[in-house]
Amino acid sequence: MAGGGNAIRGSRVGAGPLGEAERGEAAPRKAVTYFCTNAHRSVITFAVEATPPDSWDCPKCGLPAGLDEENAPPAPKIEPYKTHLAYVKERRSDAEAEDILEEAIALLRSRRKSGEVIF
Ligand SMILES: [Zn+2]
Questions:
Q1: Strands (E), 16-85
Q2: Mean pLDDT across 29-57
Q3: Where in the chain are the domains?
Q4: Coiled-coil regions in this chain (predicted)?
Q5: I want to staple 35 with a disulfide (CB 3.0 to 4.6 A). Which of 1, 7, 69, 100 is the partner?
């Protein structure tokens, strides 16, 4: 019981070394360097307690940048949608595609009727 009383007396609010630290510089930070496939080197600062992600978008070119200078992440495919569409076209005949479309429309109509989809 006596110990608790001493602790309260020992820490005065608004004075002492604690207050000085609080109005000091910004919170401690660490710098992490990311490398993109275009050989850009970007230094990103994080809070010390934060865990830096494995990859970061390069501020200079927007490509993903990694922590390993020798092994920068590859540039992503620019047209994933187009590629996928071409793939679908390759695999399906027009008739099949039409069937799928009909099916989708029928499903949409039944959903709209039951109030699931409103537009
Ligand atoms: Zn870059």
A1: 29-36, 41-47, 55-57, 64-66
A2: 95
A3: 27-77, 84-113
A4: none
A5: 69
58 marked among binding-site residues: yes
For residue 18, say whether it is annotated as part of any ligand binding site: no
Residue 82, annotated as binding a ligand? no
- The whole-number pLDDT of residue 33 equals 97
Q: Ligand 1 centre and the CA of 43: distance in Å?
A: 12
Express each pLDDT in 1-15 by its tens digit: 544 445 555 555 555
CA distances from 48 to 10, 21, 31, 53, 93 (A): 30, 16, 9, 13, 56
Q: Is 36 one of the annotated binding-site residues?
A: yes
Instruction: Give distance in angstroms: CA of 82 to centre of ligand 1.
Output: 25
In angstroms, what is the span from residue 4 Cα to ligand 1's centroid? 57
CATH topology classification for 27-77: Rubrerythrin, domain 2 (2.20.28)
